[in-house]
Design brief:
Layout (H helix, E strand, L loop, with lengths): L3 H13 L8 H16 L4 E13 L3 E4 L2 E4 L1 E2 L10 E7 L7 E8 L17 E7 L21 E5 L3 H10 L2 E6 L1 E15 L9 E6 L11 H17 L5 E6 L7 H9 L3 H4 L2 E5 L9 E6 L2 H14 L7 E4 L7 H7 L4 E7 L17 H16 L7
Helix pairs in contact: 1-4, 1-9, 4-9, 7-9
Length: 383
């Protein structure tokens, strides 16, 4: 039985490890932890390392007179050497010595920042709106291909001060920069072998990295991944179930790209993939399941009905275009998939996304049972 207590404990441990950015010590330790947790559930996990060029930002700050705010650079902008100071005037027209301001949010692959990046600004300051009191960061969609002026992300509540500076033509000083460290980053994979090797496997995929502690954003997917592995190991199914946990989510889905390179054909060879996307079972969210394949959505709906639980089940959406996140990468490699996400998470990409306040452990457990029921629907009928 998959329980809320077991799911909550998995998220607690994941959150306690620290900030889960790709290629860091926490990221490496978290991969080792996942392998240990799999072993405790009777499943052998494997760490697959890949060479990785980690960008290490120096301290980042925007100062306008006596007013100061800490920030974090967008890692696919062109950043100077650590500790560089950029001085300019906050204004609305691009040019040498001029600093742009813009407001945006932490969601999506397009942003109001994008049009400014082809213009000749000295720097761009982006107020990213999210949870009050925390720095919310955008994902990096062109990691390894830096372009445009330095972009500094600051909390959304800084916007009013930035507007006053722009309207008054105030001078600003930006301190930022970055260095590069050659290291490695790892995916974790496992297989619970089924009795019939002729059956195409089902793959369960979760990202395992992010900007912060990511209790609500990533913790639910991690807990479901582990608890479903435990359950299918105990069931001794006919079909093999593969488990893939990828790093590099916040950097343009870097980890799943590396997985597909190392395992050519694996995406399309699976019967289907279950993508455990962002915010599953996060506090205040509703589960949404997306797929380009109606029969998979029908199977998911039937699995939900079989649970016999009183909670409201997921909303199912048929989308001809690939869903977001790692699902769009495996779809590009020929995979059939269902993609689960939690809609409406107020702490998404925020430094305040922490256990236990960010999660609903009962919702995580229910979604884990739903994934297990979905997998079982594709077992061959007894002869």
């Amino acid at each position: 039985m998959i329980t809320a207590d077991a799911c909550s404990e998995a998220v607690r441990a994941y959150d306690a490890q620290g900030i889960h950015r790709t290629g860091t010590r926490v990221d490496a330790d978290s991969a080792e932890w996942l392998v240990q947790e799999l072993a405790a559930r009777g499943v052998e996990g494997v760490i697959e390392e890949h060479p990785f060029s980690r960008i290490d930002p120096s301290d980042c700050e925007v100062a306008i007179g006596a007013w100061k705010v800490a920030g974090y650079p967008l890692l696919d902008s062109v950043l100077p050497r650590p500790g560089t100071t950029i001085e300019g005037v906050v204004c609305g027209e691009p040019g040498q010595g001029r600093i742009a301001i813009v407001q945006t949010d932490g969601h999506g692959q397009t942003s109001t920042i994008d049009p400014l990046r082809s213009q000749p600004w000295a720097a761009i300051v982006a107020a990213v709106h999210g949870a009050s009191g925390g720095l919310t960061l955008r994902n990096v969609w062109e990691f390894g291909q830096p372009h445009g002026p330095p972009v500094i992300q600051v909390p959304g509540e800084a916007w009013e001060a930035l507007v006053r500076a722009r309207d008054g033509g105030a001078a600003a000083t930006i301190r930022c920069g970055a260095s590069t460290t050659e290291t490695s980053a790892a995916n974790v994979i496992a297989r619970v072998a089924g009795a019939d090797a002729a059956l195409a496997p089902i793959a369960v995929l979760t990202p395992r990295s992010g900007w912060w502690h990511c209790a609500g954003e990533r913790g639910g997917g991690i807990a479901i991944w582990l608890e479903v592995a435990r359950a299918v190991r105990a069931l001794a199914l006919q079909r093999s179930i593969d488990f893939v946990a990828t790093t590099g989510h916040e950097l343009g889905f870097w980890g799943i790209e590396r997985y597909c390179e190392r395992h050519p054909g694996a995406a399309a060879a699976a019967m289907c993939w279950v993508h455990l996307g962002a915010n599953i079972g996060a506090k205040g969210t509703a589960t949404v399941v997306r797929s380009a394949t109606q029969r998979l959505l029908d199977a998911l709906g039937a699995a939900d009905g079989n649970l016999g639980e009183s909670r409201v089940g997921p909303t199912c959406e048929l989308r001809p275009k690939p869903a977001g996140g790692e699902a769009q990468v495996i779809a590009a490699h020929g995979a059939a998939y269902v993609s689960m996400v939690g809609a409406g998470f107020s702490l998404f990409h925020s430094s305040t996304d922490r256990w236990p306040v960010a999660i609903d452990a009962e919702a995580i457990a229910r979604n884990a049972r739903l994934v297990l029921q979905f997998i079982r629907r594709f077992e061959p009928a007894a002869s």
